[in-house]
Amino acid sequence: MRVFISIDINNDLKQKLSETQYQLTSLNCDIKWVEKENLHFTLKFIGEINEIELRNIKLVLRKLLIDKLTFTISIENLGTFPEKQSPRIIWAGVNKGKDQLCFLSKIINDELEKIGIKREAREFIPHLTLGRIRSKYNIDKLTTKINEISNSYFGESVVNKIILMQSILTQKGPIYTSIEEYNLCE
Question: Annotated catalytic sites, by residue?
Fold first, then answer.
């Protein structure tokens, strides 16, 4: 089973982000867009696990998240990873709530590492992936347009739960299914 830990966003934000994807689609670039219903923040990608590891992850998350408070995030700014000259990922960033997302990612990584789940090598940067660039076709148009609209503001969303998700890879794209949800305190 392939799993990750995520935060969902409200439907209004998904719609606004989808409109931005559509705007960038007009540039005729070779991009695999994330489906609107799959837009989310990944706090921790875990990967392939077995049933015992799944049970242990659930126990850790239940205990760890029981007293964490809800908070609000603002989604704003567009950019690319790893760099503008050779981008592979188009993302939307976080301003308000960024520190809380980083804290959640850190404590989740710390606790999961204690049960043998490896920590990611790269630093956690809160972002929402909008698309994956498959080739450099029309890349100059894309980077120019992203620079023009990089200061976009999409809105806010309340973070009131953390979701342990299963990801099933298919020819048409991933299918995400919630395994367990962890409500945060109000």
Answer: 40, 127
